[in-house]
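Database export, one record per block. Field names are fixed; values are copied verbatim from the stored entry.
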Amino acid sequence: MSTPLYGGWRRVRSLGIAGLDGRQTLLLVLAVAVPLIAALLRGLTFALWLLPAAAVVAAAAVTTVRGVWAVDLALAWMRFTAARLRGQTAYRAQLWAPYPRKWDLPGVLAPTRLLDLHDPGRGRVGVVWNQRGGLMSATYLLSPTGALLADQATVNYQVRAWGQVLASLADDTAVSHAAVTVELTPALSSHLPQHVAGRTDPAAPGLARQIMDEVVAAAPATTTRIRARLTLSVDTTKTPARDVDGAVAETLRSLGGLSLSAAGVDVLARASADDLAQIVRTGFDPASDQVASPERWAELQWPDAGPVAAQEEWGYYVHDGAYSITWCLVEAPRQYVTHDVLLPLLLPSPYPQRLTVLYRTLSREEAGSVLKREQDAASARRVYQYKTGRDPSARDEADAARAEQAAAEEAQGAGLCEFSLFITTTAGSLEELEEARRHVEQAASQSRLRIRPCWGGQAAAFAVGLGVAGLYPPDL
């Protein structure tokens, strides 16, 4: 059986010329038009005085840095510098504040509150309530079966099933978005025997137990622990619920409506409040995962899950003595790829690493309008190129073809999904962080992804990458 290929992703593009977006095109037109109008109204001498400024504006309009418009980058730097001068990039926890503590998590996590609930028949479950945006998020703890040892027919079925899961989100108007997170944490060899012992059937044949013992004994001194989870965020303003209890019920209903087994994952459990607090705490302090006992995690409160001290820098984030960098996706692979395209980013690493993919499935009406707008923008670019006598570039032709294909597929009943990706790596020092940075960027290159550091927004991107708090970048 041949291996199917996947692709057709494209960035949302506004109407622009020569590969520029709408804002860049407008700025470039102003840089050209203002001196010309000034020459007509005030004379050539006055227009010559404007030429240096117009040249700077035109250069700024067409300049990008790793896929980011230079003007956006300059504005981000000015906002970050202003925030630093106001002391807003540093965080110190209120260790001696009286209970109940409020707004005790840093940055965009501050409005969140953890609800510890009892779901009849299913035990304890934790829900993160973002009181600022009105989102409630519940999490599944997953155990991916993996595709390395599966036959191609099984892999194809699992990929189609995952597509159906995403498509089903469009039918639930209350669902805002979903986040899939995979964490890779270096672990000591003692974790593997404990993991195997906890899953060994006492009635298993002696030969099977002997083989597993030999495998554990032959394992390297350090291993990588992989943990996966899926978080579903529900917009409570779009539900009929009139109070918090009703909103929680709608959130758990939406989470229970997902069927993931066909997509190649086993649901271990619904994340409890203790699980969610542990996820956040170990994200800020990876060393705590090695020393804390289950009893201590049960005592952890949500306000205490954050860092004791944190400092945001332009290109990295310092939290409780650890150093992290978070990247975001700039461009998905242009070519068609196989199902395992992200495998280089999910291979064992000497440093803690976290990959979070955010999905937002558009409603049928919104998908149609978005694709129509994109199709019109691609057509307008073709008309402009024809009237100016320019030959369309290969990229423009490929982008227009993908826009036409997406519109045709949507007209036949296909859904439209927006997605983004965040990658976080953590190290114990700046020197190790530089090595971890090279490791991630090399893996992203092998996965054919264009990524960039979240300059000036490392703290917010770190919180988004945790995946459990229902944060969605356009809403921040």
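Remark 1: Residues 75-362+416-475 form one domain.
Remark 2: The mean pLDDT is 85.
End of record.
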